[in-house]
Every structure is written in C-alpha cells, then in structure tokens.
Design a protein that fits this description.
Elements: H1 2-20, H2 48-77, E1 86-87, E2 101-110, E3 113-117, E4 126-134, E5 137-145, E6 150-156, E7 163-165, E8 170-171, E9 180-184, E10 199-205, E11 217-223
Parallel strand pairs: 1-2, 2-6, 5-11
Antiparallel strand pairs: 2-3, 4-5, 6-9, 7-8, 7-10, 10-11
C-alpha cells in the first residue's frame, strides 16, 4: 500500500512540474539547435530556499526511516554469542529474558521445498514430522510453541532462496555456501492458538528461484499447548 502511495505521489509530482514549470521565454536561437551555446543559469530563476528544502527534507526523512528501522534490523541480525544467552533445556527455567533464551533449529531450502531440523527438541516446542495439503500439494508443517525464541540457521542446496514468515514479518536470504540465520519469535493473534489445531501461517520464498518459485511454501503452526 505504501509503495503505491509513494509511487503515485512521486509521479504526479513529476507530471505537475513537467507541465507547469515550462519555460515561456523562448528565444529565436532555440529554433536553431546548432546555435545553442552553453551559458549560465539565469540568476532570476534561482531559489535558494527551494533548493535547501528539497535537499534537507529528504535527508531528514531518510535519517528518520533509518532510525525507525534500526531496532527491528538489530533484533533480526543479533548474534547469539552473548555470554548470558541460554538455549535448549536451559530455557525451561522460568524468569529468563526471552531474548537471551533460545532454541536452535535448521531451515534448508531447495528447489522447490523446505526442510526443517528441530535438533532433537521436544515435540511440544518444535516438530517438523508432519505434512499437510496446501492447494493440492503436500507441504511440510513446522510446529513451534508460542512464547519461545528460535535461532534458525539457514542453508540452501542449490540457488538463492529467502524464507519469509508471513505473519511474523521476518525474512532472510539463504545463499549456497554462505551461513545466514534468522531469529523467530512465534506469536498467535487468535484464540485458535490454545486449541488442538493451533494457529497457522505460511512460510514462502521471496527470492525468485526457478519455475515453481510461486509454489515453494510450508505451513508454520503456532500453539501454546
């Protein structure tokens, strides 16, 4: 939505200025293209305030957007090497900061499906043993427990992929031969989370990876049982 708003405003602005601010002082010399000589921009057309405005305002906007997005980016790319961090069975103790108490899992991408490795975690925390029908195709199901924190190591066996957890708002590239990782904090938005089926969202690929890129999907089920 924001892309459409910004794009529409920008093109309307360009069209307006292109039509309204056209030179009305046309010299006869302009009819002879070969007779045009390089000169100095007319002083009476200078507008220092306008030039400062279109330089300073975008600069402030860029600085604000950078500051606004720095927090989420830092969370997504944070290193798990903090000496105070805990993982695995240590996360069972109550009272720990969830940002420093995590489980390590693996996500492997391949044309055109996902594979998951829960690294021996209890099935109530992470489970990837099931498959489910999605629009006529059997896709893997990754079950995660709400309130837990997961550090997913990403890998690709062929081309570049990019797992995108739709409802969680996080994504990261999985590049062959390059280690990358992603923090996942599964949450529920409906009462289904406490039910037998839990709440499901999709895991999609946002990096074009070949013919069946659009069908490279998995189901992520979040529960609190």
């Amino acid at each position: 939505m924001w892309s459409a708003i910004v794009g529409g405003f920008t093109f309307l602005w360009l069209a307006h200025h292109s039509l309204v601010y056209r030179s009305k002082d046309v010299d006869d010399d302009w009819e002879d293209i070969d007779g045009i000589e390089v000169g100095v921009f007319p002083k009476h057309n200078d507008d220092l305030k306008l030039e400062l405005a279109w330089t300073i305002v975008p600069f402030i906007l860029i600085v604000w957007l950078t500051y606004y997005s720095w927090g989420p980016i830092n969370e997504v790319w944070a290193s798990p090497d903090d000496p105070d961090s805990m993982y695995g069975l240590e996360c069972g103790t109550e009272g720990h900061d969830p940002n420093k108490c995590y489980h390590t899992i693996g996500i492997t991408a391949q044309q055109w499906f996902w594979s998951f490795d829960c690294n021996g975690l209890d099935a109530d925390i992470c489970d990837s043993s099931e498959y489910q029908d999605l629009n006529g195709t059997m896709v893997p199901v990754l079950k995660l427990k709400q309130g837990e924190y997961f550090y997913a190591n990403l890998s690709s066996e062929d081309v570049t992929h990019a797992p995108w957890f739709v409802k969680f708002g996080v994504k990261e590239d999985a590049v062959p031969g390059l280690h990358s990782a992603l923090w996942i904090a599964p949450t529920c938005e409906t009462a289904n989370c406490g039910g037998d089926e839990g709440e499901s969202t999709l895991l999609l690929c946002t990096e074009y990876c070949g013919d069946d890129h659009a069908y490279m999907a998995a189901i992520v089920n979040v529960h609190n049982n």
